[in-house]
């Protein structure tokens, strides 16, 4: 299971914070730009990982032998 | 037979037999074990059937008021415990069991045991709401314990993949009914604990009560409650409830329900992302637009459109001051010049040479000292008298003093 695991939960929370901050606070321009960049980066990252449809079902037999089959 | 033999009527006989039977306490509220056959339920709700064993049979009836309370669908072949009374229906002379209550034999006992176990485990707090953990919203890996090759397992694979294809699925096949099933399930759950799973689904498809009974096994239920990984119990259909359902962190009534509980819908996440992106873009646009407007406003201020205005005023001021200065200087100059002219005139008037030019002369002594008074003159003193064009050198012969006050 060597996939680069993205913590969806925390990334989505961060994204929510970013969007809300940008919409409710008046920020200096450089801060706005920084938040914007961060937000877009998170979105891209999550979209990419959602599209990574490489799924596998691993069947664990009682003898503890692992067989993996891609579907 | 003799002609005067006393005789009964049929009705009389039957009625007599009925009273006899009705008087026997041992025939009332008895429990009878038997197998149902020729079961028929009429539109009225009344049920007529036969109860039998290997060698005998007895007619039975259960009227609608009692039959309504049956908690299982009676069918031929069911082994039952029927509670009722034996009596004769005088109209047809048939003695029947009038059934007031009926339950499936064996199942009845099972249910009682199950109820006891449920109470015991509940008292230990195994089913408490507070013990139930929230399921991870975005699991990385899910374990599924279900029948190998079962429709339920396949349903879950398909639905989980449809909703959230990026999650890893670990499948732990197990027996789900019959002998050895509870042990198999427990072992699968134990094995699953050693894998880095976020959630475990324990599930199987629908079935008769006996088929689901493995999920009421005490050791299995305890294992579910003790699982370090959150467990979703998806056993049977909507109406089926097993003790595993109570002990699990979440109960799903179908395999699809289990998939929905275990993973988020990717489309929801995607639309959330798109929405967030749109909001960010809009917000950024708005910010930049406002900034541009502000800059534009500054650009339009006179200080930038007509910078000369900054100093033009000052220039005018300077010019003005310069003029004033020049004017005042000129005035001073004229003033001084006039004064000078005046002085010059005065001076001119006082110029001895002018006086001389007018014919006057002055006299000085031998030292050059000017003689202004007769008292300064002594007879025989040498003196000079300067005229406009020469000097008279003379010696004083005599002097005349002017009378005071006269002339």
Gross morphology of chain A: elongated
Q: In order across it, which strands form the biggest sheet of chain B?
A: 1-2-3-5-4
The low-pLDDT segments of chain B are none
Give me the strand/helix succession of chain B. HEEEHEEHEHEHEHHEHEHHHHHEEE
Number of helices of chain B: 13
The structural domain count of chain A equals 1
CATH level-4 homologous superfamily of one domain in chain B: Response regulator
Global mean pLDDT of chain A: 78
How many β-strand runs of chain A? 2
How do the helices and strands follow one another from N- to C-terminus of chain A? HHEE
> Into which percent range does the helicity of residues of chain B fall?
40-55%
Major pleated sheet of chain A: 2 strands, antiparallel
Radius of gyration of chain A: 19 Å
Strand content of chain A: 5-15%
Radius of gyration of chain B: 69 Å
Based on the coordinates given, report the CATH architecture of one domain in chain B. Answer: 3-Layer(aba) Sandwich
CATH class bucket of one domain in chain B? Alpha Beta
Distance from N terminus to C terminus of chain B (CA atoms, Å) equals 227 Å
The percent of residues in helical segments of chain A reads 55-70%
| Share of β-strand residues of chain B | 15-25%
Largest interface pair = A-B, 38 and 36 residues
Topology:
The complex is a heterodimer of chains A (71) and B (407).
Chain A lengths: L7 H17 L4 H23 L4 E5 L5 E5 L1
Antiparallel strand pairs in A: 1-2
Chain B lengths: L9 H13 L7 E12 L5 E6 L4 E6 L1 H4 L11 E11 L4 E11 L2 H17 L17 E7 L3 H13 L4 E7 L6 H13 L5 E6 L4 H4 L5 H9 L4 E5 L7 H5 L2 E2 L3 H8 L3 H34 L2 H4 L2 H43 L1 H6 L4 E4 L16 E6 L2 E6 L12
Parallel strand pairs in B: 3-5, 6-7, 6-8, 8-9, 9-10
Antiparallel strand pairs in B: 1-2, 1-4, 2-3, 4-5, 11-12, 12-13
Helix pairs in contact in B: 4-9, 5-7
